[in-house]
Automatic annotation (TrEMBL):
Family of the protein in this entry: Belongs to the bHLH protein family.
Source organism (scientific name): Oryza brachyantha (malo sina)
SUPFAM superfamilies registered for this protein in UniProt: HLH, helix-loop-helix DNA-binding domain (SSF47459)
Name the record gives this protein: BHLH domain-containing protein
Domain spans labelled BHLH: 66-117
Length: 237
């Protein structure tokens, strides 16, 4: 075959073209059997966990393994501190109970308690102001009363009043001193002397004092007479 001349430009028509009949084969892109035959290797299927296997091959990086100083580590520390503050706030709001996990509820309780404390503080402040006003008015009235008293009394009368006041105070002190001396003397007195002062009557004996030698001298003579003992108390009795 040569392709030298222009007249020979239809050389391709000299060869007969064989008609190839089409087959009924339809390639399914999702068929693993066809893919393995045509491509020469196994294609993983979705239900076999092919994607899960590839995902599991990726290296997982837990949050706790972040090196210190990184943004993730700083964020974790910030969240931990925030959770600790919320736990402390919950313990203050409800002592003796486990801390709440709902941060919104904790903040609501804190806001409610803060409002109550502010109202109580305002009440205390107003009562304190009223007390201060009362004290000021009492001071003013006392000063005015003293000024009127000084104006109504002469210096001699004021000195006389002061002298009487001092004299009354000294008299009260002397009375208290005498009463104290008398009570002390009564405590130090002996039981025998107390019996003599009582006119021969029995008096309670203080256990703090040593017992006396004998009490026969205060026994009546009729009780000391033993001549009638055999008659009144025979031996057989």
């Amino acid at each position: 075959m040569s392709c030298g001349g222009a007249g020979q430009s239809g050389w391709l028509l000299e060869y007969g073209l064989e008609e190839i009949q089409s087959s009924d084969f339809i390639y399914m892109a999702g068929d693993p059997a066809v893919s393995s035959v045509l491509l020469g290797f196994d294609v993983p299927r979705k239900e076999d966990g092919g994607q899960d296997t590839s995902a599991s091959k990726k290296r997982s990086r837990p949050e706790s393994s972040a090196p210190p100083g990184t943004k993730a580590c700083r964020e974790k520390q910030r969240r931990d501190r925030l959770n600790e503050r919320f736990n402390e706030l919950s313990a203050i709001l409800e002592p003796g109970k486990p801390p709440k996990a709902d941060k919104v509820a904790i903040l609501s309780d804190a806001a409610r308690l803060l409002g109550q404390l502010r109202a109580e503080a305002q009440k205390l402040k107003s009562s304190n102001e009223s007390l201060q006003d009362s004290i000021k008015s009492l001071k003013v009235s006392s000063s005015s009363t003293r000024a009127r008293w000084l104006d109504s009394h002469s210096p001699e009368e004021r000195r006389a009043d002061e002298f009487e006041r001092v004299k009354c105070m000294q008299a009260e002190k002397s009375e208290l001193r005498d009463e104290k001396t008398r009570l002390k003397a009564e405590r130090e007195i002996h039981p025998a002397a107390a019996f003599a002062q009582a006119g021969g009557k029995y008096v309670p004996y203080a256990t703090s004092y040593p017992p006396p030698a004998a009490f026969w001298q205060w026994i009546p003579p009729t009780s000391l007479d033993t001549s009638k003992d055999p008659v009144m108390w025979p031996p057989v009795a």
